[in-house]
Amino acid sequence: MGDTLEFNNIHTEVKGSWNDGRLRFSKQSVVYKSHKTGKVDSIPAPELSAAQWRRVCVGHGIKLATSTGHVYRYDGFRDTDFEKISAFFKANYKVELAEKDMCVKGWNWGTAKFTGSLLSFDVNDSPVFEIPLASVSQCATGKNEVTVEFHQNDDAEVSLMEVRFYVPPNTGDDGSAPVEAFAQNVLSKADVIQATGDAVCIFKELQCLTPRGRYDIRIYPTFLHLHGKTFDYKIPYTTVLRLFLLPHKDQRQMFFVISLDPPIKQGQTRYHFLILLFSKDEELSLALNMSEDEVEKRYEGKLSKNMSGPLFEIVSRVMKALVNRKITVPGNFQGHSGSQCITCAYKASSGLLYPLERGFIYVHKPPVHLRFEEISCVNFARGTTTTRSFDFEIETKQNNQYTFSNIEREEYGKLFDFVNAKKLNIKNRGIKEGMKGADGYSDSDEDQHDAYLERMKEEGKIREEGDGSDESEGDSDESFNPGEEDDDVPEEYDSNASVSDSEADDADSEDEGKKKKPEKKPKKVVKEKKERKPRKEVYQYLMNDSMHDESRNRHDFINPLLLSLRPTEEAVRSAQCLSCVSQEWDRKAEEAKKQYEKAMKEYRESGGGAAASVLYCNPCFFSVGQNKSGRHVTCSNDIFW
């Protein structure tokens, strides 16, 4: 058997909410570290007095009791873990791991037992439920009832508000009422803040950023009291997780940050951090409201009765002694300007990001603290508005992403080296190392492959090859003079891309006998006119097949999607399909054009042009003929019976 036993995904109940973490048994102590807050509970091995193994709602659990009266409960073990944990306890702690069954009879009449900071309700010496007295916020008494109210946890989906106990009216041995005795036992261990006695010291009119305002801070032995013009807050020292002392970038101010769990509340707003702002030039002389012997005995030299110095040093020294927590300061990181922080923006506010030895902290609105152990990866992204800045993205293991934007590009090299030295996973390491130049950042956007841009370029090339040849060829190969006209171009708009020879001859015959028009100057041709591709004929022939009544059923069989389309939508759909049907429909359009030219020639030779004959368009049955000027009027489809 090894010197340690470790278990992951072990749960502990914190004011009605389950927090998971890692539990480790060693020869010296029992250590539990929460994944959510990083808080560490350590139980020295000599203080461990009793241990119980029992079945709970989440697998199996262990209940540990210490000689100091504290009780710890951890759940999430498997049935097979009992043997090795029991053997480890016997060998290293000299404590037997006893099995204890919970009572599941459902009775509501039993015996209330107070064991340290735990209230246990038993039926026939088997516990039905247990209440940690540290979760009790208030205790009220009635005639024969005791009402116990609890602190609320915002992380809990369902919260227990209160429990009422009925106490029989039997007089105790000492003559006291059972109800009062029950209430006193609860209040002696409950987390009920009562401002009794004098404060150890008072700090007047301190500037607080969150919650914003100026507050008088009264320091009591067990809690912190913030008194402002509008709100009062009482903060137990047990809810303080960490203390931070951070220098401002201007080197003239200091931030003192207190991390809280659970947070303080103001209506629906929760404050997880208490941030105080001090000026380095502000001095203070403080005298504690205690005797020198009492100060020496209680704080073991950490404080003295009379202290003087900068205000931020006095406040941080007092808080460190009373909360019994270390103060975290920035490490050896130095930015481009020599400061220990980076100016950036988080969400809609500008603030300062401090790279610490074990995490990052951002102040001040809203404050964010991220530990390295909860970070999954980081990413260096380009700024969205300018290349003079970049974004620093942090993704946690809980799939939460924090983006700190508008960081000056001069800070890139320092921040990249810091993250790399801390062995954090950099998502785009290869790209950014290539970008890193003499100044730590590159302005060029061409050194990073943009897959979306390349895809759009390819689609544009395909679209130009398929649809863009009509307009580009006609405009680029000829020079246009506004004062000149072209004999080959019809006066009225003709959808046909090219004019046949038979049509030109017919136009000459139609103009005979009429007033001869003046000769038109020939147009200068710069380049040889290229033959234009019959794209419009292909489109009209495709529409002919898709819209004609006789071929509608056949087309729907080919493309069932068009059954649900209106004519306008069908036209758009057919136009989109035009690029896919080049060869087959080009051939059909050419054959139809030849048939039309042959029929038109026969029609004109038979004298059909002398009268106002009526023709009908094949696709839409639009009647066509001649206008008053003798000019031929056609349907835009140009395909006739």
TrEMBL record:
InterPro entries: PH-like_dom_sf, RTT106/SPT16-like_middle_dom, RTT106/SSRP1_HistChap/FACT, SSRP1-like_PH1, SSRP1/POB3, SSRP1/POB3_N, SSRP1_DD, SSRP1_sf
Chain spans, region Disordered: 458-539
Localization of this protein: Nucleus, Nucleolus; Nucleus; Chromosome
GO cellular component, one term: nucleolus
Molecular function (Gene Ontology), one example: histone binding
Biased composition (Basic and acidic residues): 528-538
Composition bias, Basic residues: 515-527
Keyword annotations: Chromosome, DNA damage, DNA repair, DNA replication, DNA-binding, Nucleus, Transcription, Transcription regulation
Listed Acidic residues bias regions: 467-494, 502-511
Keyword Cell inner membrane (UniProt): no
Highest taxon of source: Eukaryota
All residue ranges annotated as the Histone chaperone RTT106/FACT complex subunit SPT16-like middle domain in the record: 339-429
GO-annotated biological processes: DNA repair; DNA replication; regulation of chromatin organization
Cited Pfam families: PH1_SSRP1-like, POB3_N, Rttp106-like_middle, SSrecog
Function: Component of the FACT complex, a general chromatin factor that acts to reorganize nucleosomes. The FACT complex is involved in multiple processes that require DNA as a template such as mRNA elongation, DNA replication and DNA repair. During transcription elongation the FACT complex acts as a histone chaperone that both destabilizes and restores nucleosomal structure.
Family as reported in the entry's similarity comment: Belongs to the SSRP1 family.
Protein name per its UniProtKB record: FACT complex subunit SSRP1
UniProt organism field: Cyprinus carpio
Taxonomic lineage of the native organism: Eukaryota, Metazoa, Chordata, Craniata, Vertebrata
